[in-house]
Amino acid sequence: MGAYILRRLLLVIPTLLGIMVINFALIQFVPGGPIEQIIARLEGSGDVFESFAGGGSETMDSGSGDYLGARGLPQAFIEELEREFGFDKPPLERFLNMMWDYIRFDFGESYFRNISVVDLVLEKMPVSITLGLWSTLIAYLISIPLGIRKAVRDGSPFDTWTSGAIIIGYAIPGFLFAILLIVLFAGGSYFRLFPLRGLTSDDWESLSLVGKVLDYFWHITLPVLASTISAFATLTLLTKNSFLDEIKKQYVMTAKAKGLPERRVLYGHVFRNAMLIVISGFPALFIGVFFGGSLIIETLFSLDGLGRLGYEAAVARDYPVVFGTLFTFSLIGLVVGILTDLTYVLIDPRIDFESRG
Fold first, then answer.
1. Contacts (Cβ under 8 Å, ≥6 apart) of 169
2. Residue 63: which pLDDT band, with cuts at 50, 70 and 90?
3. Rounded CA gap, 291 and 142, in Å?
4. What CA–CA distance (Å, rounded) separates 170 from 229?
5. Residues 74-121: pLDDT tens digits?
6. Which residue in 150, 172, 279, 269 sits closest to 227, CA to CA?
7. Which of 55, 74, 230, 266 has its CA 20 to 30 A from that of 286?
8. Does the pLDDT value for residue 48 go beyond 60?
9. Partners of 60 in beta bridges
10. What's this model's pTM, rounded to 2 decimal places?
11. How far is CA 327 from CA 12, 19, 115, 178, 330, in A?
12. Largest Cα–Cα distance of the chain, in whole Å?
């Protein structure tokens, strides 16, 4: 197993490098870089993309290397901006310098926020940890027992009406469910049972320990529910189908014929095999909720997390934030994949990754 883990860890290096190379190459062809953003603000345009939409008269002249939108600004000022942001160097040199810094976990400083990328990510992390951790935990705690019960009672009225509810939940987008929760329970039109902004109240520091815990859960109830709905539906059906496949196999019939209690057969034999496919979806589920699926939820509930940070950085062309978070999140995703393989072995010791290849 040690050799397999070592191979996977070594594979992280070219995979991560490939991700960064592709994204860095693509970003070279995207108009409206940070220098154009600053020029647009200085000239009062507000947004560099307005000039692109107007016919491209403000874009960079690739032949002369000058910014046509900067004709009213001194050329020395433009060159100073290029040196400050590092755009006076060739793309390959910029990429190599960036990767050398990232290897040492030096992600630089945001172009527009005057704060290091690490400090900025740590500042936004509590919101994403809240949404990702609690949504994933609730989805697994509810979906696995429900999916097992649906498999055991397949075709019963319980299975039918729960399947209907699950399909409805799966069909409702997370942001639409979030709006429904706001309208019903956050003072939209009916009840004002939950707050609509932030993770904690303004007087959180003055509350007792129990009060802080209750206040925290009071604030996260609605956004976590909105984040959980689609993952909950998918995971329940996945668990049910996985258990149904195992229940119909010969070894289960043999165990029942020997007189073993159904509960022991289910949790002593079936559970170990059926849970492998469920666990295989954990990295995608966690990473998706943690990083990708929280932008709209964060916006609706006025939460300032990594979803909004990534979106705002992409729009503003804040490259240190974009590439720093991309590098970090890709690395986390690859490591979580390795941990998933280790979980396979923990659940079913018969699995031997060492023999592969």
1. 229, 230, 232, 233
2. very low
3. 22
4. 7
5. 777 777 777 877 787 888 888 998 889 888 888 888 888 888 888 888
6. 172
7. 266
8. no
9. 67
10. 0.71
11. 12, 8, 18, 30, 5
12. 89
**159-180: pLDDT as tens digits:** 899 988 888 877 887 788 888 8
Q: Rounded distance, CA 274 to CA 253, Å?
A: 15
DSSP 39-70: HHHHTT-S-HHHHHHTTSTTSB-TTT--BGGG
**Cα–Cα dist 102/17, whole Å:** 11
Lowest mean pLDDT among 78-87, 312-321, 327-336: 78-87
**How large is the angle between the packed helices 174-185 and 209-247, nearest 10 degrees?**
140
Per 3-state DSSP, what percentage of the chain is helix, strand, and coil (rounded to 5)?
75, 0, 25
| Total residue count of the chain as it appears in this document | 357
Closest CA to 217 of 207, 299, 119, 124: 207
> Cα 119 to the chain's mean position, in Å?
19
| Tokens 């970090």, residue located | 328
**Taking the CB of residue 352, how many other CB atoms lie within 10 A of it?**
10
62-66, 142-146, 217-221, range with the lowest pLDDT: 62-66
Domains of the chain, CATH where assigned: 2-103 (no CATH), 123-355 (1.10.3720.10)
**CA dist., res. 225 & res. 14, Å (int):** 37
Percentage of residues of the chain with pLDDT beyond 90: 3
The mean of the pLDDT values for the chain is 79
CA torsion, ordered 312, 26, 10, 339, to nearest 10 deg: 40
